[in-house]
Design a protein that fits this description.
The chain is an all-alpha fold. Helix content is 68%, strand content 0%. It has 16 helices and no strands. Helix 9 packs antiparallel against helix 10, helix 9 runs parallel beside helix 11 and helix 10 packs antiparallel against helix 11. Keywords: Membrane, Transmembrane, Transmembrane helix.
C-alpha cells in the first residue's frame, strides 16, 4: 500500500487540513497580506480585509512638517508681501475665527474656517496685487496668478493634514493629500523662490537660481520618503526592504520631478535669453551647464534611491552612475573652465598658454573625478585608495603651479593633498590636522 502522502486526494478523506498542500498567494502587488504573516493563522475574509486596511493606514502625526515648512513658509511670506494689507487683514480675521472654533472643540468648523480664510485671502490677493501690470503680459500674469493660487492651495493641504479627525474619518483622502503635497511642493516652491530671488537681484542668472532651488527641493521631496500614515511593520516581511507602497510618491511623480530637474532650468533659460544664447562660447556653455549639473546631481541622488523608479538592480544603477557621470563630469569641467575659471579668475593663473589650459584641466577634472568616485562609494579597497591618493597629490601639485606657487616648494601642496586623501580614505584625525596646517601655510602665502 502506498503511503498516505502519495495517495490521490480522493482516497485521502481522513487527512487533516493541516497536512494538505499549501495554498499559493494570488496577489503579487507587494502589499502586505495577513496570509504572509508567519505568526498568523486562518481567519475570515472580513478579518483579512480589515487587517489589510490597517496595514495600509495608521493615524499618526504628520512627520514631514519640517521639510514642508522649508518650502511653504517662505512662499507664504512672499505671497503676503505681494498681497499687502488686504491679504494680511483677511487672513488674520479668518484665522482668529478658526482659532476660536478650535478652542470650542468644534474641529470641523475650525477646518472649514481655515479653508474659507485661505480662499478669501486669495480673492483679496487677486484685487490687491498688480501682477498683470508688473509683467506687462497676460500670459505671464496668468501664470503668476496660477503659481500663487497653487502655493495657497498647498498651504491649505498642509494645514489639513494637521487635523487628526480627518485622518481617522477619511484615511484615503489623507494619503492622497500627503502624496499631492510632495508631488507639487518641489515645482511650486522652486518657482516662487526663483521669483523672489529674481525680484531682489535681477534676471541675468535666473536659470541658475532655479537650478539650485530645483536641486534643493528635489533632495527634500523626491528622494524616497516613507509615508507618515502607513505602518512600517511591513518591512519585516520583505527581507528588510521597504515596500514601494510605503513611499509617498509613485513612479509617475518621481519621473515628473526628474524631468523638471533636468529640463526646466534649461528651457527657462532658452525662453528668457533666446536672443543671446549663441552669441559667445560662454553663452553656449550655459546651456550645457544648466543640463549637466542637475544631471550630475540626479546621479548622486540615485545613491539615496532617486532612481528607484527606473530599476532596482544595484549593478545597473552603478553602471548608469559611472558611465553617465563620467561624460557629464567631463562636460561640466570644460564648460566651467570656459564660463568661470578663465573668464573670471584668469588673473590668478600664473602659467602661460598652452600649459595653463593643461594644468587647469588636470586640476579640475582630476579633482572632480576623485570627488565623484568618493561620493559614489568607489574608494573602498587598497587599489582604489591608492588611485584616490595619487589623484589628490597630482591635483594639489598642479593647482599650486597654476596659481604661481614656487616650484621648489611644490612638495608642500603635494603632501597636503596626500594627507587630505588619507583623511577621506581612512578617517584619520591626525591626517586632517596635518592637511589643515599645510593648507594654512599655502593660504598665507597666497594672501601675502
Amino acid at each position: 500500500m502506498l503511503p498516505p502522502e502519495l495517495h490521490p486526494r480522493t482516497f485521502r478523506p481522513y487527512i487533516s487540513a493541516s497536512t494538505s498542500a499549501p495554498s499559493l498567494p494570488t496577489s503579487f502587488d507587494g502589499i502586505y497580506s495577513p496570509e504572509r504573516n508567519p505568526n498568523g493563522g486562518s481567519s475570515s475574509s472580513s478579518l483579512n480585509s480589515r487587517s489589510l486596511r490597517s496595514s495600509r493606514f495608521s493615524p499618526s502625526a504628520f512627520v514631514h512638517n519640517a521639510r514642508i515648512a522649508v518650502a511653504l513658509v517662505p512662499c507664504a511670506a512672499f505671497l503676503l508681501d505681494l498681497g499687502g494689507t488686504p491679504v494680511v487683514a483677511t487672513l488674520t480675521l479668518g484665522l482668529m475665527i478658526a482659532y476660536i472654533l478650535d478652542s470650542l472643540n468644534f474641529k470641523s468648523g475650525s477646518f472649514f474656517a481655515v479653508w474659507f480664510s485661505l480662499i478669501a485671502s486669495q480673492f483679496a490677493f487677486f484685487f490687491s496685487s498688480s501682477l498683470f501690470g508688473t509683467f506687462n503680459s497676460i500670459i505671464l500674469g496668468l501664470s503668476a496668478v496660477s503659481v500663487c493660487s497653487l502655493a495657497n492651495f498647498l498651504i491649505g493641504v498642509w494645514v489639513s493634514l494637521q487635523f487628526k479627525w480627518i485622518q481617522i474619518e477619511y484615511p484615503t483622502i489623507v494619503l492622497a493629500l500627503e502624496r499631492l503635497l510632495f508631488a507639487c511642493c518641489p515645482i511650486i516652491a522652486s518657482t516662487v523662490f526663483t521669483w523672489a530671488t529674481v525680484s531682489a537681484v535681477g534676471m541675468v542668472n535666473a536659470a541658475y537660481y532655479l537650478m539650485v532651488f530645483n536641486c534643493i527641493f528635489y533632495w527634500l521631496f523626491s528622494v524616497p520618503r516613507l509615508s507618515s500614515f502607513k505602518l512600517k511593520q511591513e518591512v519585516s516581511y520583505h527581507g528588510g526592504r521597504v515596500p514601494d507602497e510605503n513611499f509617498i510618491l509613485g513612479q509617475l511623480e518621481s519621473c515628473v520631478h526628474t524631468l523638471n530637474l533636468l529640463f526646466f532650468p534649461l528651457l527657462f533659460h532658452i525662453a528668457s535669453h533666446y536672443s543671446v544664447i549663441f552669441v559667445s562660447a560662454a553663452s553656449i556653455c550655459d546651456l550645457f551647464l544648466l543640463f549637466f549639473i542637475p544631471f550630475l546631481f540626479q546621479l548622486y541622488a540615485s545613491t539615496r534611491g532617486g532612481l528607484w523608479w527606473v530599476t532596482k538592480n544595484e549593478h545597473q544603477l552603478q553602471s548608469i552612475r559611472v558611465v553617465n557621470g563620467a561624460i557629464a563630469l567631463f562636460v561640466v569641467v570644460i564648460c566651467l573652465e570656459v564660463r568661470v575659471v578663465f573668464h573670471s579668475f584668469g588673473r590668478y593663473i600664473q602659467v602661460p598658454p598652452p600649459l595653463n589650459y593643461l594644468l587647469v584641466t588636470i586640476t579640475m577634472l582630476g579633482g572632480a573625478a576623485a570627488a565623484g568616485a568618493y561620493a559614489l562609494g568607489m574608494v573602498s579597497d587598497a587599489f582604489s585608495s591608492l588611485g584616490f591618493t595619487a589623484s589628490a597629490v597630482i591635483v594639489s601639485s598642479a593647482g599650486a603651479i597654476v596659481v604661481g606657487f614656487p616650484v621648489l616648494f611644490v612638495p608642500l601642496p603635494a603632501v597636503a593633498g596626500f594627507y587630505l586623501a588619507r583623511f577621506f580614505a581612512r578617517k584619520s584625525i591626525s591626517s586632517y590636522f596635518a592637511f589643515v596646517v599645510l593648507g594654512s601655510l599655502m593660504v598665507i602665502w597666497f594672501v601675502m
